Amino acid sequence: MASSVIAREQVLDVRNPRTGQADHRLVVTRAEEVAAKAARLRDNQREWAAMPLDARCGVMGRWLGVVRRAAADIGNADAVDTGGCHTSYIQGFITMANIGGWIEDAGKALDNYQFHGRSAVMPDVEVRTQLVPYSLVGVISPWNAPLMLAMLDAIPALFAGSAVLIKPSEVTPRVIEAIFETVREVPELAAVFDYVAGAGDVGQAVIEEVDLVCFTGSVPTGRKVAVACAQRLIPCFLELGGKDPAIVTADADLERAATAVLRGAVYATGQVCYSTERVYVHESIHDEFVALLAQKARHVRLNTPDPRAGHIGPFTFAPQADIVLRHLEEAKSAGAQVLTGGEIENHDGGLYMRPTVLTGVTHDMAIMREETFGPCVPVMAYSDIDEAIRLANDTQFGLTASVIAGNEEDALAIGRQINAGAVFLQDTFLTFGKMRTVGTHSFGFSGLGGSRTGLDSILRFVRRKALMTQHGAVADIQDDHHLGAPKGPPQ
Ligand code: NDP
């Protein structure tokens, strides 16, 4: 990415994924400005945390109204940032659902975590809890689903009473600018919610200033973030990459399986953390499944020249196309066959790839081991279900997985044996289903820390403090039996 220094201001040119041209500029937040913003947020957070939750919900409700009016513009900004994936256009509405959901749920979630009563061990002692929010939460977010993945952590943190400082990806800044136009219309919220702009060094500057970090991104960067947080001894929650498998059993409905696998693998050009990245199909149906998958793949259209037409868009981040090509070239030279797609196509400056179905792959290949993050569907045959489960679990990741079997019971039984935080049965791409319902934990390198979904996800942002009152006599050090321990040895 080109950069230039104007006076003391560093400006980054931002590429448009549909044209390949830089048509947006980003003024990088200097380290001293990051510190100044953090100090301002931290000061204002005291008043925000002191408000009753109902009052914070009132402020968030007003913000919801502003977001509703701006929802279409927010969606359009997200679409320019990403190149126009289907869900981009509804990102304003997804943000509204996120805010509205927490207006309903925050009180319940925080109350569930409170306790007031007698100690089980010391009955004269009354125990009450107090939830103390972390003052300043840092959110570092990636270029895929750039608004949703920043707001998923930021919004519950605000409800919990924290102030929030976001460092979005420098690749996709437009939608963050659009959402902060709405934040500025609600002064009480703007006092505790801000963002900084720039690349990894600005992310590191944020880590230096905050009390807790939520990071979504790649494993290598996640590791750097974890090290920086460890140096400061502050908590960090990591949502990282995946290499998500799909298993299709011998008796699966082929039409259903091919439809679900294709969508799971190529939606948003495969630039989704829980994309299906490798497929294991029983050898008895392998050829038929692959033929059907390839046939369906050929019908997928690129969304060029009209971003709202077609099914998949360009690569959001141009260097990602090089990673995908490297995986494909390496697989081909080791004997894999590419049945569809496989080429980078340049349309008006945007870099596209059609759904790419491959066979003849093995677990020695990067395309079966490393996150590809492109519209590739490598398919491998297995001979018995234990082998399929072993292959699915043969990975350093464990974000999600899919199983499509002949019946729901079999799918469930197989799903129970896969090491992943979420397993989609008889379909792919069901992760939205757990958003407000249940929290999950990823396996392996896919994540670390408490869940970002479900009611409990708000608990990441509060410390639970216990206040204990002695109602009985205080213990005397010379007759110290206050724990109720027997006075002599057991009889
Ligand atoms: P990166 O890890 O490259 O970047 C993520 C964020 O970290 C960006 O804002 C980036 O800034 C910033 N950053 C870069 N270097 C540092 C550093 N040294 N210290 C602090 N922050 C830094 O991820 P991508 O943006 O490429 O996103 C794609 C990845 O995200 C994929 O691996 C995908 O699987 C994963 N992901 C995981 C999800 C999950 O829920 N598990 C969801 C979505 C994506 P900048 O971009 O400006 O350089």
UniProtKB/TrEMBL annotation:
<dbReference type="InterPro" id="IPR015590">
    <property type="entry name" value="Aldehyde_DH_dom"/>
</dbReference>
<dbReference type="InterPro" id="IPR016162">
    <property type="entry name" value="Ald_DH_N"/>
</dbReference>
<dbReference type="Pfam" id="PF00171">
    <property type="entry name" value="Aldedh"/>
</dbReference>
<feature type="domain" description="Aldehyde dehydrogenase">
    <location>
        <begin position="10"/>
        <end position="461"/>
    </location>
</feature>
<keyword id="KW-0560">Oxidoreductase</keyword>
<dbReference type="GO" id="GO:0016620">
    <property type="term" value="F:oxidoreductase activity, acting on the aldehyde or oxo group of donors, NAD or NADP as acceptor"/>
</dbReference>
<dbReference type="InterPro" id="IPR016161">
    <property type="entry name" value="Ald_DH/histidinol_DH"/>
</dbReference>
<protein>
    <submittedName>
        <fullName>Aldehyde dehydrogenase family protein</fullName>
    </submittedName>
</protein>
<dbReference type="InterPro" id="IPR016163">
    <property type="entry name" value="Ald_DH_C"/>
</dbReference>
<dbReference type="InterPro" id="IPR029510">
    <property type="entry name" value="Ald_DH_CS_GLU"/>
</dbReference>
<comment type="similarity">
    <text>Belongs to the aldehyde dehydrogenase family.</text>
</comment>
<feature type="active site">
    <location>
        <position position="239"/>
    </location>
</feature>
